[in-house]
Amino acid sequence: MAPRPHWLFGDQLGPHFLDPRHGGPDDKAPVVMIEARSVLRRRRFHRAKAHLVLSAMRHRAAELGDRVTYVRAETYAEGLEKVRGRRASSPLTVRHPTSRRALDFVGGLEGVEILPAKGFLVSHDDFAEWAGRNKGKGSGKGEKGGGQPQPLRLEGFYHWVRERHDLLMDGDHPAGGRWNLDHDNREPPPRGQDTLDVRGPWRPSEDDIDDEVRRDLDRWERDGDVSFVGRDGPRSFPATRREARTALRHFVAHRLAGFGRHEDAMLAADPVMSHSLLSVPLNLGLLDPAECVEPAEQAYRSGDAPLNSVEGFVRQIAGWREYVWHLYWHFGEDYRHRNALRHTTPLPDWFLDLDADAVTANCLSTVLAQVRDTGWTHHIPRLMVLGSRALQDGWDPAAVTDWFHRCFVDGYDWVMLPNVVGMSQYADGGMMTTKPYTSGGAYIKKMSDFCAPCAYRPDHRTGEEACPYTAGYWSFLHRHRTRLAANHRTARAVKGLDRLGDLRELLDTTAERGDAPP
Ligand SMILES: Cc1cc2nc3c(=O)[nH]c(=O)nc-3n(C[C@H](O)[C@H](O)[C@H](O)COP(=O)(O)OP(=O)(O)OC[C@H]3O[C@@H](n4cnc5c(N)ncnc54)[C@H](O)[C@@H]3O)c2cc1C
Question: Is pTM, for the whole model, over 0.90?
Answer without folding.
Answer: yes
